[in-house]
Specification:
2 domains, 506 residues, Hexokinase, five-stranded mixed β-sheet, binds adenosine-5'-diphosphate, ATP-binding, Hexokinase, domain 1, glucokinase activity, binds magnesium ion, 17% strand, Nucleotidyltransferase, domain 5, glycolysis, single chain
């Protein structure tokens, strides 16, 4: 690792998951307004943003040695987490999924997906080996901001009512047989300590959620109680992390899938592990001898090239010192890091002229899809970049030079994120290969990818794939396929609900 990366990583030792609490955001705005009053005189004559950009690029660089260090540290943290709870950054949570979909699953099942930005309800009709997925139908609702800071009952009532209205619209042909309940696979994408396939305790909220009263509770019980309050008689037969759902969904079509990674609002990864490679199980076995481990890799923090902007964002977040990897590579945060850089450039180097627009100092105004739209602007004079800067952060006029600088800043942050995500993936593959030579690099191995960031941001995707190829080298790269599995987690959760159905014919 480069010395700058090492020192940045050391300084970030006490880092983690960021969304502003409303109070922190207001305080930040006040501090900013005060600082601007005293700095206003010097901005006109300020220098170009070049030095800040170059310093940013230097600090965010993730050359091969940094990637290698991150991959090695990821593999080492995985081992520590498998040895004992609390032994490292990675929780390495048991999924209680020890048999993967076979293709024989049949019947009507539901999936409920609570991610970070949206929640989805999905109905899947499974037709067994020949017909596979006969039909799917889904509805998606975005989660109102105030529910992220509300009570457990408010959040789960909102979810249950969405589910109730979805079911209420169904035609008769979807009604369950007399005496049977509709069964759900509940995809819940926050760190949960599973206690069985259909129960698990929330460890903590991430991705900006600060719902009171949920940590320490069984989220299936929370949902079941909310469904009761809605008069909805459904049964959760599988509680599934979104990565686990993605792996199960992708594996349904392709036996070579071994790892699944989510890059959306947040990030996480899971993989198939041998039971005898999990010391903390103390010899416990399952029929297949294998299980899916949910790494919760968002909490990883070793050797990351971080900047003052990352550290400030972390300090002002509702979970300082936590989820550092997630804060560096996932969709919720990339836009915010860029906003912080632009704010400094606007203030110190008059990037947007004499004044700094108020909106630019409001946390989380600039979002990752905005970065993506700006980076993909191919118009003369970068008109789209100008429009976004105007609409989103209130920059009335921007020179072509300034727009180009903005794109370079986006690219720097997105490149770092994509490359570090790639290094994380290689860390997992490396750990699996070390345990069983040839398991990964001796044959075709598929990494199933999903999440809005991976799906919609081509530059991010390419940086990720480049980093994987650089780390693996030509020979091993030939065997590793990084593949997008769209909405695999929904189908996967429904498949796991089917596999764990109360009415399953045995
Ligand atoms: P979740 O993670 O909430 O389950 P998704 O997987 O749909 O949901 O991911 C949504 C996230 O993906 C958004 O928060 C955003 O960061 C990112 N995203 C969505 N659309 C785009 C886009 N066009 N470009 C870049 N990132 C995007
Ligand atoms: Mg999701």
């Amino acid at each position: 690792m480069s010395p700058s990366a090492a020192s940045a990583a050391a300084a970030a030792g006490s880092f983690s998951n960021l969304a502003p609490s409303p109070a922190a955001a207001a305080a930040a705005r006040r501090r900013w307004a005060a600082a601007r009053c005293s700095a206003a005189g010097g901005r006109v004559a300020a220098a170009s943003a070049g030095p800040i950009l170059r310093e940013l690029q230097r600090r965010c660089a993730a050359p091969l040695p940094v990637l290698r260090h991150v991959a090695d540290a990821m593999a080492a943290d995985m081992r520590a987490g498998l040895a004992g709870d609390g032994a490292g950054d990675l929780k390495m949570i048991l999924s209680y999924v020890d048999s993967l979909p076979t293709g024989n699953e049949k019947g009507l099942f539901y999936a409920l997906d609570l991610g970070g930005t949206n929640f989805r309800v999905l109905r899947v009709q499974l037709g067994g080996k020949d017909q596979r997925v006969v039909d799917t139908e889904f509805e998606q609702v975005s989660i109102p901001q105030e529910l992220m800071y509300g009570t457990t009952e408010e959040l789960f009532d909102f979810i249950a009512s969405g589910l109730a209205s979805f079911v209420a619209k169904e035609s008769e042909k979807f009604h369950p047989l007399e005496g049977r309940k509709r069964e759900i696979g509940f995809t819940f994408s926050f760190p949960v300590k599973q206690t069985s396939i259909d129960s698990g305790i929330l460890i903590k909220w991430t991705k900006g959620f600060a719902v009171s009263g949920t940590a320490g509770k069984d989220v299936v019980a929370c949902l079941t109680e909310a469904m009761k309050r809605q008069g909805l008689d459904m049964r959760v037969s599988a509680l599934v992390n979104d990565t686990v759902g993605t792996l199960a969904g992708a594996r349904y079509w392709d036996d070579d899938v071994m790892v699944a990674v989510i890059l959306g609002t947040g990030t996480n990864a899971c993989y198939i592990e041998r039971m005898d490679a999990i010391p903390k199980l103390q010899g416990l076995q399952t029929g297949s001898g294998k299980t899916i481990i949910n790494t919760e890799w968002g909490a990883f923090s070793t050797g990351l090239p971080l900047t003052e902007f990352d550290k400030d964002m972390d300090n002002e977040s509702i979970n300082p010192g936590e989820q550092i990897f997630e804060k560096t590579i996932s969709g919720m945060y990339l836009g915010e890091i860029v906003r912080r850089v632009l704010l400094k450039m606007a203030d110190v180097s008059a990037l947007f002229g004499e004044s700094v627009p108020d909106q630019l100092s409001v946390p989380f105004t600039l979002r990752t899809p905005d970065l993506c739209a700006m980076q993909n602007d191919s118009s003369d004079g970068l008109k789209e970049v100008g429009l976004i800067l105007n609409d989103v952060v209130g920059v009335k006029k921007s020179s072509l030079e300034a727009r180009k600088t903005v794109i370079e800043v986006c690219d720097t942050i997105v490149k770092r994120g994509g490359r570090l995500a790639g290094a994380g993936i290689v860390g997992i593959l490396q750990k699996m290969e070390e345990d069983s030579k040839g398991l990964i690099f001796g044959k075709r191995t598929v990494v199933a990818m999903d999440g809005g960031l991976y799906e919609h941001y081509p530059q991010y995707r390419n940086y990720l794939k480049d980093a994987v190829a650089e780390l693996l080298g030509d020979e091993d790269s030939k065997h590793v396929v990084i593949e997008h599995t769209k909405d695999g987690s929904g189908i996967g959760a429904a498949l796991l609900a089917a596999a764990n159905s109360k009415y399953r014919e045995r």
